[in-house]
Amino acid sequence: MSATAITVRRPVWRRLIGFNMLTGLVLGIGGWFLGAWIGGQMAIGHDYLVGTDQNDVGIYMGYLFGLIGWLVGLGFANYPIGRLLGRPPTLRHHETGGWTRYFRLCTDHKVIGLQYLFGIGIFFFIGGLNAMLMRTELLRPVEQVWPAGQYLTLVGLHGTMMIMMTSAFILGPFGNYFVPIMIGAQRMAFPRIEALTFWLTPAAGLILMSAIAFGGIPFGWTGYAPLSDQARSGADAYVMAFLLIALSMTLIGINLMATILTMRAPGMSWTRLPIFVWGVLATSVLMALASPVLVAVMSMVLMDRSANTSFFLASAGGSPYLYENLFWFFGHPEVYILALPGFGIVLEILPVFARKPLWGYRLAVAGMFGVTILSFMVWQHHLFVSGMNAGLRPFYMLTTELISIPTGFIFLNAMGTLWRARIRFTVPMLFALAFFFNFLIGGLSGVFLSDVPSDVTTHGSYFVMAHFHYTIMGGLVFAFFGAIYYWLPKMMGVVFNERLAKIHFWLMFVFFNLTFFPLFAAGFLDMPRRVSTYAPHLQWLNDFVSASAYMLGFSMLVFLANLVWSLVFARIPAAENPWASRGLEWQLPTPIPVENFARIPVITSGPYEYGVTGAPPVADFMPAALPAAGS
Amino acid sequence: MNTTLDPARTTGEPVEPPELLARNIRVGSRIWAASQAFFFLAFFFAFLYLRALNTAGLWRGWPPHHPDPSLAFGVAILICVLAGAAVARLSVYLSAASWRAGTIAALVLVLAAVGLQSAQFSSLGFGPTDAAYASVFVGWTGLFTVTLLGTAYWLATVVGDVSRAGETALVLRAAAVDAVSFVLLVLAGVEIAAFILLYIVK
Amino acid sequence: MTEIVPERVHPHGWRIVGIWLLLTAISVPLIVLVLGPHLPPGNVSGEAGGQRDANVLLTALLVPIALLVCVFFVYSVAVFRNSGEAIVDGPPLKGHAGAQLLWIVLTSVIVLALAVWGSYTLIVSTHGAGGGQGPDPIALPKGHQHALPIQVIGQQWEWTFRYPTYGGLETRDIAIPANTLVAFHVTSIDVTHSFWAYELGVKADAVPGVDNIAFVTARQTGFFQVRCAELCGLWHGHMAKKGRILSVSAFQAWIAAAQKRNAAIGKYLPKYNHVYFPAPLRRAG
Fold first, then answer.
1. pLDDT tens digits for range A390-421
2. I need a surface site. Which of A308, A459, B122, B188 has the fewest CB within 10 A?
3. Most confident of A44-48, B10-14, B156-160
4. First to last CA, chain A
5. Helix axes A404-418, C46-79, angle to 10 degrees
6. Strands C169-171 and C193-197
7. Which residues in chain A (188-247) have CB-CB distances under 8 A to chain C?
8. How many other β-carbons are positioned within 10 Å of the β-carbon of residue C261?
9. Do B24 and B176 meet the contact criterion of CB atoms below 8 Å apart?
């Protein structure tokens, strides 16, 4: 890549032509129609067989060809074809250039991090909008705004957007951006795979949203099988989108794990690894091992719907239990995929603003890996009343309750870190503290669900819904916003308006609790999940929740306004280390150079040595001799 | 042409030692193999679970007609996959001169397995609609073949690497052969499980 | 670990424990005595009572734990704050083996005790706690051989009930006799539903091809609410019914009336079976 190629300014229309997102969209849409036609030819009469006017084989082929077109248009085929034609492997590609690199295949992990931040942010806001529409329907106990099928599609889209599209909510933006920097590396282990993991995400999101055109996904994010086998072709979009996201999750897990295992700078021993990196490592283990099971179960649904296999059809020898087992074998690790990076973030933020070392570092690591291992052994607690393996219920009760021991470690770390600290109440710190309050309620309400007699009352009710919103929204999303406020000065080089940020925090914290705490009561009072009609005596409760939910939504608008104001209008440049943090990433200039470190640094001290007299600086950035990286 | 390892290339980016790339490939391939093992674990579980439940007594299909895949094809595919993995893996432990022959032989064997599986599908005698066993059979072997095909592409790039020996560092070529052969080894393990369950246990 | 001796030693730990003990002493009696009797799902059946006891005990146990963490956080936030503008480092405490060990031991003891207690109540004292136990229940109440079987069939979007003891009588509304052990046999003929009899404390998934059994003994006459607790398609929210708990004699009269009403259509019904396999599923087009 010569320097002249960058400096020549071509007209904008000329820059649109080439391997970029626009080409990807054009080829993707073209590929959809080609594939749908080919699939229709392959399976003439399938639409008659399944009793609708929709040919699932054609739709699947359409998505497949559309995906291929999207990836080819982005330039993902160039390298493999080049390899086949004999071009040698290269290290880095397409890393320089102006703003256009955010819209094409770029292998710079910092670009991918920002792509993830905005890409997933869009899906997060779509999911939030779905929630607002659902709460509007629930203002009255009868159907009023949405027909039943559309309401259920909103429920499904909200769930899939929030749980599956945002599986990499923290790993995508902050894992990709900061893990290589925090371990003193110049890149990720597999940069092209890293780019692929991101560009699969918008493809999955577009495919998922196309479900609206094919009859919606009236079966929630879990898509229990006989129901999703039965649904119209919107289910094909759900299956395809989930497949792609699971693939993306597997790859991001492999990539991050390999990066952390091999690319640590010299001196970055396991006990000096920032706790966020530990969280990412634990999460990537889950992603690399649990997501393939999701790929498998989704391909089974795909075959049930297109090739008429009968994995999940009891009337043809299959079993709905198979779906429930396999789905939750992935699904329970998935909720820890969402929670663990949150643990990492808050434990990363706490020492910086408590001005104390992280208390009980090894315990925190043990807690994270304890959760990782146990999360593979608890999945049947989603199925306590399903009638499968009744004899195993005490075992799953035990494992589920055991998981609160390592989770408790994280709380002890936080309490120890706050003990006799010098706390500064910055916005990231507020979010981190709120995380612990919310996750405390979320975690303790989970104990009700782990106890079978109590679960018989609460299973499938709004209690469950309130519980996992406390852990995911109250945990993950609060950690996510904490991370945004903490790291955006480094990522974007601008500071947020602090007043607006604090308004955002207090609105979000107060109305989050006012929205979801009453829903525990709704669940106790016999309100099942995913209903658009409910008992009339619960209307006042639901109206209260809806009003709070609107305010919660409004707090997100405050955040957006702050983001736009700070990023576009105010543009107050951020200091290089505004929080006086010892994190390696804060020692770098803003913006961070393409290669992160001119030389691989030698790490000389841990990242949390606050108040330790005589602690050396965190790293030597200009070591005399170029050391062997990764040793 | 050699843009990777030419220290004279002055793009401002530092040249990474090939040992690092080699280790990335080795570590990444182990995790990738684990991911694939978990993927097929789902089918392993599906087989045992549906067989144990035997809902409506339809595990082996509707009574007069029991799906019965040809054992000859099964053995042939098993031999191809096992031999491919063994050849690729053995060449890792031999000298660098044997890598080319080893990977080419493995590629041929893997492609032969794909071909044999396709031939079996065209003369299967039953279809995916023949209840639970047929579903698992078609799903497992079908997706295994897709995985083999993807691995065959990877193998082809490794053949290219070891053929143009002068262009990549020795450690990189060693890592490439090691990585792909390790994944093949895990796939061979999956194939053994598939053969035992799908052809013998049923 | 280098402990920097502060200028003035505050008894922070004792204050936190004191506040926590005070709050616990106030909240736990309130939970047990005031809130407890109102916690769901009430006391209509033995199983519901068992669930309510579990809810009361868990609330009374978990609220103090939540209070401990909250008091610690609130106290820390209020007391250990950096009031000035300058950034001041705190004491470099990196851990305390005793505190960590104590925490691990305490949480482990609580968790193991909960698991043992939960298993005991599930298997021994409430006989499955009203949850679906599948076709081969392991927690069998006394006299389960003589339990009154009632089949619950879920379909999109209606519950139907069959009484095999009364010739496979099929009804659209449900009544059960009080003070009699009832065995619900829950199944489905299309997609997965979940039979939720709220006041009875019964919840059992209705899965096609599965005979999911849940035991319950109602202690008094009255009504119970039936809902579907697993998303089953468009009118999932409409699968609600009022069930009746009748005295044994009233139940016999209700059965007799239903038999008389259904006499004409009885012969068209499929033979009573634990599971039904209708024609393959068609898309809801």
1. 889 999 999 999 999 999 999 999 999 999 89
2. B122
3. B156-160
4. 29
5. 20
6. unpaired
7. 218-220, 222, 224, 226-227, 229-232
8. 11
9. no
Quote the tokens at residue A63. Answer: 């998505």
The percentage of chain B sitting over the pLDDT mark of 70, rounded to a whole number, equals 92
Chain A residues lying within 8 Å of C139, measured CB to CB: 390
Of B4, B17, B61, the CB nearest to A90: B4
pLDDT tier, A631 (very low <50, low <70, confident <90, very high otherwise): very low
Q: What digits encode the pLDDT tens for the residues B94-121?
A: 888 889 999 999 999 999 999 999 999 9
What is the length of chain A?
Answer: 631
For residue range A570-625, list pLDDT tens digits in order. 899 988 899 989 999 999 998 888 888 888 899 999 899 998 888 888 888 887 75
H or E element: which one contains A619? strand A619-620
pLDDT per residue as tens digits for the range B108-161:
999 999 999 999 999 988 888 888 999 999 999 999 999 999 999 999 989 988
Query: Which tokens in the block code for residue C199?
Result: 């006041």
Sign of CA dihedral C227, C233, C237, C239: negative
Compute the average pLDDT of residues B7-33: 75
CA separation, residue A576 to residues A111, A488, A580, A582, A592 (Å): 19, 11, 9, 12, 10
Asked if A231 and C202 come within 8 Å (Cβ–Cβ), the reply is: no
Please report the residues numbered 222 through 281 in chain C whose beta carbons come closer than 8 angstroms to any beta carbon of chain B. 275, 277
Q: Given CB atoms, is B56 within the 8 Å cutoff of chain C?
A: yes
C-alpha neighbours within 13 Å on the C-beta side of residue A277: 27
Give the number of other Cβ atoms within 10 Å of residue A388's Cβ.
Answer: 26
- Chain A residue numbers touching C54 (CB-CB < 8 A): 451, 453-454
User: Residue B162 has what pLDDT?
Assistant: 87
Task: Please tell me the number of Cα atoms within 13 Å of A256 on its side-chain side.
Answer: 34
What are the Cα distances from residue A262, in Å, to A446, C49, C62? Answer: 37, 56, 43
Tokens of C180: 């009699």
Position A5 scores a pLDDT of: 45
Q: C120-137: buried (b, 16+ CB within 10 Å) or exposed (e) per residue?
A: ebbbeebbbbbbbbbbeb
Answer yes or no: are the C-beta atoms of C200 and C48 closer than 8 Å: yes
- Tokens 């709460």 label which residue? A135
Select from C17, C45, C111, C138 the residue whose CB has the most chain A CBs within 10 Å, as the one to mutate to test that interface.
Answer: C111
What pLDDT is recorded for position C281?
Answer: 55
- Tell me the residue length of chain C: 285
CA distance C104 to C98: 10
- Inter-chain CB pairs, A–C, below 8 Å: 324
CA gap C154, C208 in Å, rounded: 9
A179 close to A260: Cβ distance less than 8 angstroms: yes
Residue B18: is the preceding peptide bond cis (ω within 30°)? no
Q: Which chains touch A (3 or more CB pairs under 8 A)?
A: B, C
Name which of A5, A197, A199 is nearest A98 in CA terms.
Answer: A5
Asked if residue A432 lies in contact with residue A579, where contact means CB atoms within 8 angstroms, the answer is no
DSSP A441-486: HHHHHHHHHHSHHHHHHHTTBHHHHHHHHHHIIIIIIHHHHHHHHH
Considering only alpha carbons, which residue of chain A is nearest residue B168? Answer: A88
The residue with tokens 């940020």 is: A501
Q: What are the backbone dihedrals phi and psi of residue A184, each rounded to the nearest 5 degrees, phi first?
A: 75, 35
Contacts of A37 (CB under 8 A, 6+ apart): A58
What digits encode the pLDDT tens for the residues B65-97?
888 899 999 999 999 999 999 999 999 998 888
Alpha helices in A18-108 (DSSP H): 21-42, 46-50, 56-74, 78-84
